[in-house]
Design a protein that fits this description.
The protein has 292 residues and is of the alpha/beta class. It has 12 helices and 10 strands. It has 2 domains: 122 residues, 3-Layer(aba) Sandwich (Glutaredoxin); 128 residues, Glutathione S-transferase Yfyf (Class Pi), Chain A, domain 2 (Up-down Bundle). Strand 2 and strand 3 form a beta hairpin. Helix 4 crosses helix 7 and helix 8 crosses helix 10. The radius of gyration is 20 Å and the shape is globular. This is Glutathione S-transferase family protein.
Length: 292
């Protein structure tokens, strides 16, 4: 997305497993990546990040084919399909991944611990499910189109690319499953050629300083809603799939596309944390309500 919009940006490298001591002050506990920071505003999940990039830098648009296409592609490629290929990759590489990684991913799934033998034994079953999904993806390009929506790349393409990239970078043995689909491989090469914009490395401390020295943008407000949420409610927001660490704060934004919480942290002060609606559950924060 950043490459298509030709943006200059700073990137902080974070650990792939917990603990993530320099991320939690910004997100309030949300542990997954990617996360985008603009001052004291923290955007979680690719969908929410994409919406903010489009709002701030509308040209060139990343919404080729429309938001509906991008959202449907996200539901397919980042939902059960991604879990299928993730377990396939983890099982195929089980012997070369550190035990700490397996334990961390087990906790993300809500399991008590990692059963590596079981993960390895599940590879044929997940591979059986992955192959037809790859065929579906390849069928998108049967008519020769270069991108999902036609001649222009967009969010739907980047969403489709991510799980394919995850397969490709995890070793030739794993990536062999892509070989029957040259159209997918060519598509991946086209997306990779777009690049990532102009990136420079940034320290975690510098990112925390940037949040501490800024104030969140004025919130969008809480729209009228059937659920009864009101501005100022003390709430928790939690992913509905995995990595279900709740983020607690005061509700400042609620609408069709997103949820915004404002929270305080000793290291960064006041920050606003933004989530998409889809894929995240909101509930009253009992502990916060009791304390209030």
């Amino acid at each position: 997305m950043l490459g298509l919009k030709r943006l200059a940006w700073s990137g902080v490298e974070i650990p792939s497993t917990l603990p993530k001591p320099d991320l939690v002050p910004l997100t309030g506990g949300y542990r997954k990546t990617p996360v985008m920071q603009i001052g004291a505003d923290i955007y979680c999940d690719t969908r929410r990040i994409a919406e903010e990039l489009e709002r701030c830098w509308p040209e060139p648009s990343i919404m080729a084919g429309g938001r509906g296409l991008a959202n449907v592609m996200s539901a397919f490629a980042e939902g059960p399909s991604f879990w299928t290929l993730a377990v396939y990759v983890m099982g195929a590489n089980a012997d070369v991944m550190p035990a700490s990684f397996h334990e961390d991913r087990a906790r993300m799934r809500g399991a008590a611990g990692a059963d590596i033998k079981r993960i390895k034994a599940s590879v044929p079953r997940h591979l059986e499910q992955l192959r037809p999904r790859l065929a579906w993806m390849a069928d998108l390009f049967r008519d020769g189109r270069p991108f999902v929506a036609g001649d222009r790349p967009g969010l739907a393409d980047f969403t489709l690319y991510h799980p394919l990239w995850f397969i490709r970078v995890n070793g030739p043995g794993v990536a062999r499953v892509l070989e029957p689909h040259p159209a997918l491989i060519a598509f991946m090469d086209r997306i990779a050629a777009i690049g990532h914009g102009e990136m420079r490395a940034m320290s975690a401390e510098a990112a925390l300083d940037a949040a501490r020295e800024a104030m969140p943008e004025p919130p969008a407000g809480v729209m009228a809603n059937a659920e009864g949420w009101r501005e100022g409610d003390l709430v928790e927001v939690t992913p509905t799939d995995y990595g279900r660490e709740p983020v607690a704060g005061m509700l400042r934004g609620y609408g069709p596309e997103g949820i915004t919480l404002v929270r305080e942290d000793d290291r960064v002060g006041e920050v606003a944390v933004h989530f998409p609606r889809v894929g995240f559950a909101i509930r009253h924060a009992r502990a916060l309500c009791d304390a209030a």
